[in-house]
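In line with agreed milestones, the collection of sequences with tokenised folds has grown. One record among many is set out beneath this paragraph:
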Amino acid sequence: MALSGLFLVVFLLQHFIINFSSVVSPTTFNQWSHFMGYNVLVQFVLQPILIFGVVFHFVMGFVLEIQNRKSRRISYAQFKGNKNAPWVSRNMIWSGGVVLFFLILHFIDFWIPELNHKYIEGSMFHAELSDPSRYYSELVHKFESLLRVCVYVAAFVFLAMHIYHGFSSAFQSLGMKKKHKRSLLFFTQAFAIIIPLGFCFIALYHHLVSIHTIVPHA
């Protein structure tokens, strides 16, 4: 569970860097997106590994939750969980469930149309059908809807909550040394706040771009 979580954190950082480039340089975002979408190694080796990592992490999360519930068949006479552990750590299954639901929506929103364009329309195997400059305008178009933006922002709030506890816990599960605990805790908590906030900023920024119809040419 810890290893798969750390693997997904690395992917999240990489995903954020590419997405944030859309704010700084639409041309760079188009170039990186096209490379990630049409590179054979990325598509047929790294992407299946990523999908397996996502599925494995969430399946293990639900398995561990079931095991934890079974380990105590008799409820506490009086349980004050907030005195033993923060709310986030006691409700990882719920924050994780919201993130999983968001990932499904995100796949429907971006990944499935991309698969259709590449494998049904055939741009993956016919270069003349692909448009390397389409990604930025498609991204801005997606965030025209305020409802979609609100859903994304809410999902990233839950993602922040999930990472805030899970990232540091992963290092503890892997035997983090006590002398490194404070610095690692600061790093993981900062990451859990900054990266989701960054994703929220990206969504809000492109919503404002869309409503002012100032999509620059790549």
Notes: The chain has nine helices and no strands. The longest helix spans residues 178-211. The mean pLDDT is 86. The CA atoms of residues 147 and 153 lie 10 Å apart.
